Amino acid sequence: MAIISEDKINTFKKNIAGTVVLPNDNNYDELRVVWNAMIDRKPSFIVQCATAEDVAPCIAFARKFDLEITIRGAGHNIGGSAVSDGGLMIDFSAMKSITVDVKSNRAVVQPGATLGDFDAAVQVHGLATPVGINSTTGIAGLTIGGGFGWLTRKYGMTVDNLLSVKLVTVEGESITASENENPDLFWAVRGGGGNFGVITEFEYALHSVGPEVLAGLIVYPLAQARQVLNSYREFNLQASQDLSVWCVMRQAPPLPFLPENVHGQEIVILAFMYAGEPTEGKKQISSLPSFGDPLGEHIGVMPYIQWQQGFDALLTPGARNYWKSHNFTELKDETLDIMIEYTGKLPSPQCEIFVAHIAGAPNRVPSAAMAYGGRKTQYVMNVHARWDENSDDDSCIDWARKFFNATKPFASAGAYVNFMTAEEDDRVTYAYGSNYKKLVEVKRKYDPDNILHMNQNIKP
Ligand SMILES: Cc1cc2nc3c(=O)[nH]c(=O)nc-3n(C[C@H](O)[C@H](O)[C@H](O)COP(=O)(O)OP(=O)(O)OC[C@H]3O[C@@H](n4cnc5c(N)ncnc54)[C@H](O)[C@@H]3O)c2cc1C
User: Fold this and answer.
1) Which atom of ligand 1 is nearest to the CA of 74?
2) Ligand 1 atom at shortest distance from the alpha carbon of 147
3) Cβ atoms within 10 Å of 64's Cβ, excluding its own
4) What is the best residue among 31, 76, 355 to mutate for testing ligand 1's pocket, by most ligand atoms within 8 Å of CB?
5) 166 CB under 6 A from ligand 1?
């Protein structure tokens, strides 16, 4: 760890409104821990920022003492890019304010807000914008990698709804990026991750949603997977963009609507949300149960906020996780067969194959419109290897890698950077495709020395 004199630390503390948290402090462990328990790193300094003005001194201090800078929204990045050994972590957990302007349908959000904080603040006004499906995820990291969820087919990626950001550059300058101000930077932060500066404020467009939506789960046995998946992909070709039906293959968790003898069996789940009028939604989903002989279903009209927390219990922090992901422009027969084969050999009860259908509004934006370029994507597949014991590391990681390699020939449309592990540095250029060249140009302009490199790194 870097040794910096107490005097220098005290002078730094006087320059900021927030709190410096050092390894001996009580809340050090709480702040350094991230969602994925595979990551266990010890920064030299954590600066829990209180205001946007705290960021420039953090960058200057880190640069002066040669400390690696990391930025933490809510610590959900799977590769643990929010924390490094010996570095300086800029922590936004104390900056979560959200201001909603109901006249213009806009929200201004600080970078420590979680999706749960955001949804709660905007749903008070019956508003929402597309964000992810786990309420403890940080809105900052999710947005700057692209961001998708149950509203994406209807309203686009999270970045499609981003109107502006306030950002502190590595030189300590505070600037705004939008279509009108610093448009090259605005192009880059919409998908290019934390490569260009430290964002202190996000402004989003909002839409009327809910507050009640039709949503639920239908569970089928793995033995019927092929017929269910065939019907699923046919159905999605003509489904309304108000409706998102996603597929999860795993062992049955002990859900109260499933008979006890089903718990632990391999299953196929179709999970859906209808973003329009629930009565119309009921008509639109009426054929789903006939895709097989369901083992159970849980369908109802519920608060949008409740559905946004529906998967939280399966995605709690503290487990060991390893993810691999592909984008698909279609689900080919071979892909479905491999999904079924690998669900038949899950190495732990928490491992799952997760397929999100995001076709719709995102496909109508040109690939070059912003850094997020996966515009041909119809499905994003994420292989969630998840387990508790270190002794299962090898078998679970091996399962995820083999599944990823087996499905690779059928993948296309780039890759989703927010699901990539730290070891996938060589996939970053593939992920951005033809947008990578412009990302390098913007990186050279705003961070030529690659000060901000704990991310899906764009190499200047
Ligand atoms: C359980 C779970 C569910 C998920 N579900 C979805 C989903 O439904 N849809 C989806 O699109 N994604 C989803 N994701 C992926 C998610 O988008 C990424 O993990 C994202 O990085 C999380 O953001 P964070 O702020 O919590 O992460 P952090 O780990 O805190 O930050 C990630 C990185 O973002 C950058 N960063 C963070 N804050 C800033 C800032 N203020 N300025 C500049 N750079 C910054 C930094 O490089 C940082 O290392 C999920 C992840 C998990 C773990």
Assistant:
1) 26
2) 11
3) 11
4) 76
5) no
Ligand 1 lined by 115 (C-beta under 6 Å): no
Q: Is the CB of 199 under 6 A from ligand 1?
A: yes
Confidence of residue 317 (pLDDT cuts 50, 70, 90): very high
Task: Please state the domain extents for the chain.
Answer: 17-91, 98-209+435-446, 212-424
Token output for 48: 């829990």
* Rounded CA separation 323/309 (Å): 21
- Quick check: bond before 256 cis, omega within 30? no
Q: How far is the CA of 265 from the centre of ligand 1 (A)?
A: 31
Confidence class of residue 3 from pLDDT cuts 50, 70 and 90? Answer: confident
DSSP 3-state percent helix, strand, coil across the chain (nearest 5): 35, 25, 40
Please provide the distance, in angstroms rounded to a whole number, between the alpha carbons at the two ends of the chain. 27
pLDDT at 422: 78
With a CB cutoff of 8 Å and minimum separation 6, the contacts of 81 are 70, 194, 422, 454, 455, 456
Pocket test for ligand 1, best of 137, 380, 382, 454 (most atoms within 8 A of CB): 137
Query: In angstroms, rounded to a whole number, what is the distance separating the alpha carbons of residues 387 and 392?
Result: 7
Determine the average pLDDT of the residues in 237-262.
97
Mean pLDDT value of segment 153-165: 98
Assigned fold of 212-424: Vanillyl-alcohol Oxidase; Chain A, domain 3 (3.40.462)
Residue 111 alpha carbon, nearest atom of ligand 1: 41
Q: Give me the residues paired with residue 440 across strands.
A: none
pTM comes to 0.97
Q: 148 CA distance to ligand 1 centroid (A)?
A: 12
Ligand 1: distance of its center to the CA of 145 in Å?
8
Q: Does domain 98-209+435-446 have CATH number 3.40.50.1240?
A: no
Nearest atom in ligand 1 to 80's CA: 29
How many beta carbons lie within 10 A of that of residue 5, not counting itself? 8
Q: Say what the pLDDT of residue 359 is.
A: 98
Taking residues 269-284, report their average pLDDT.
98
Length of the chain equals: 460
Of 103, 101, 286, the closest CA to residue 203 belongs to 101
Pocket mutation for ligand 1, best pick of 34, 169, 418 (most atoms within 8 Å of C-beta): 418
Question: Scanning the structure block, which residue is given the tokens 């940080």?
Answer: 138
Q: Which pLDDT belongs to residue 2?
A: 59
- In terms of Cβ atoms closer than 10 Å to its own Cβ (0-12, 13-18, 19+), residue 255 is middle
Of 1.10.3720.10, 3.40.50.300, 1.20.140.10, 3.30.43.10, the CATH number of 17-91 is: 3.30.43.10
